[in-house]
Amino acid sequence: MRHLHTRTTPTPPGTGTARTARAPHPGRTRVAGALAAGLLCAAGLTTPALAAPGGVTAAVPAVRTVSPTSADGLALTPPMGFNNWNSTHCRAEFDQDMVEGIADLFVEKGLKDAGYQYVNLDDCWALPSRDADGKLVPDPERFPGGIKAVADYVHSKGLKLGIYTSAGTKTCDSVGFPGALGHEYSDARQFADWGVDYLKYDNCNNQGVDARSRYTTMRDALRATGRPIVYSICEWGENKPWEWASDVGHLWRTTGDISDSWGSMLSILKQNLPLAPYAGPGHWNDPDMLEVGNGGMTDTEYRSHFSMWSVMAAPLLIGSDLRTASAATFDILGNKEVVAVDQDPLGKQGSVVSSTDGRWVVAKEMRDGSRTVALFNESGTAQRIATTAAAVGLPGADAYTLRDLWRHRSSNTAGTIAATVPAHGTVLVRVSADPAWAKNPSAVELGLEGSPLVEAGRTATLTSAVTDLGRTSATRVAVTLRGPAGWTVAATGPTTAASLPTGRSLRTTWRVTAPAGTAPGTYDLALKAVYRSPTGITADAELPVRASVVVAPPAGTSPLGDLPWLSTTNGWGPVERDTSNGEEGSGDGGTLTIGGVPYARGLGVHAGSTVEYYTGTACERVTADVGLDDEKGAKGTVAFEIWADGTKVASTGVLTNAMPAQALTADVTGAQVVRLVVTDGGDGIDSDHADWADAKLSC
After folding, report:
1. Which is catalytic among the residues 202, 344, 625, 694?
2. Mind listing the pLDDT tens digit for each residue in 543-575?
3. Residue 55 has what pLDDT?
4. For this structure, is 630 an active site residue?
5. What burial letters (b/e) apply to 671-697, b meaning 16+ CB within 10 Å?
6. I want to staple 621 with a disulfide (CB 3.0 to 4.6 A). Which of 129, 284, 444, 698 is the partner?
7. Cα–Cα distance between 655 and 638 in angstroms, integer?
8. pLDDT, position 544
9. What are the start-end ranges of the E strands in 324-425?
10. Which of 95, 122, 187, 257 is catalytic?
11. 97 is catalytic
12. What is the pLDDT of residue 191?
């Protein structure tokens, strides 16, 4: 719910790590959680004892520490459902009709059948003050029938209701709705009486009370109600809950809040992947809700987001507005084969098999002995990603059945698992040592060599490869490459082959010309192979190709802020020209400023960020003064890199906000593409606002 920004307040001794007060999405601010101990007394709180029912300070009742799996049998697979925050924030449209309408859509759109069951309320459902008896009061304008009426409606649809509060004196919204700190038993009793099935317990305004103590108290309060309630710990990963919360909650946030951008999703993915050993039935790593369908990423990126969350056995909580969601969004969210990966009852989180230059292989062991394998391309260009059945943990076999979970097609492979994966894309396959593998046609890999960058009116040369990965031969093979209307695409080599045995390829050279006057931008081409199996099954393979029509850079030295870029990714908001990154909106930055020194020109970015420029082998040098922008005070750590095609040609190492601007110069002679990259300093992307100040390209 809240973006990683603003101030850090020291935590009193013995309360764990310092907490970061994060700047929220619109309309939400945080009050520092680690305040002086005197505030605890002012609030009528003591620690470690917390308030029992009725608000009377008392020792917490002794409850046997047991894994939730064995204690209650809840969340044996990762919870699936919906959370309203990204859709509505605290706006007036968040009300009873909206929530009940989401329940209706779960049924109408097939989401319930796909496995989604929790309809979860986030912040702003209550009045800002408790009643005279210290009870929570649902907002009568938003929820005129009360929360129980909503729960009853949701239950009538065969679904479950979730609710939200914070392990502090107030929730995270700037209005400051009542938190549960000191009221755990009373609030839990209300939730149970209303028929609540799921609690999201946030971390704002926590008064510096030890995290484990706060979250354990609510666990005990929920258990004391006798109602089965899934317990979601939203502690932002600050005190490493994966190390202690398996007997406290059913899931725990491992990171700060996600936002609807490729950079944010990627950063959170990388933080969550190493935590695989801590996940299992009844205790899940939670990398935050899904952004699928919110509009900040492409459908390709959203499929990657959904694929990787499923491979990580992450909770699947829809964060988009289902009332206005596109058909493509429902297709992604409703892919039952991908959902089945997430919901596999073995409960293993996928583990990294390999990761090199943005090419990721992540494999998840399944209960039936198969492996789901994600070939994930982090980079901005298509890449071949490959592994083997042995590398992902499958036993030796003559051949394997390979099921493509997005194309919903099966094939056989001799053991190689490989694909050319589009930029920011994921190929998701389920591979098994299946004795009936021969009933499926061979897996065929399509590849395309050569640069997809085309100058209008000039001819580019590309080479396709159709390779048989199967144990059986592919026969009657034919390949085509199609371009946009008006483009010329001509083969200068063979486009057919009578037979391709295992490991053999059909290679074809193509001359591709965009007409003179074609506007710069991206254009779609399609590479397709059609073939037959020895048993007569007709099959095909497709590879979408994205070509870019580019313009040669001008001679001389140009500010990079004046030049068109090929592509950008950014960890928060868009890349800005000649201003700092600012916040989530476009054009909301200020003057580029590093160490008190202002700059009129340059680029404002946020880690992780990549900005690509076409240089067409005609340029020699990139120069810039780089550092963290002053707009976030003393916070943030980043590293700057300059890449010439696939080679890193300059870098800074880790920089902090205490450092002045660093002069960075890179020799990019002969490069076709130059990439400006900003990574986090190894500690996540919180407040990593970075400047390429006075950045110039010499050609």
Report:
1. 202
2. 999 999 999 999 999 999 999 999 999 988 999
3. 36
4. no
5. bbbbbbbbbbbeebbbbbbbbbbbbbb
6. 698
7. 5
8. 93
9. 351-356, 359-365, 371-377, 383-388, 400-404, 409-413, 416-421
10. 257
11. no
12. 99
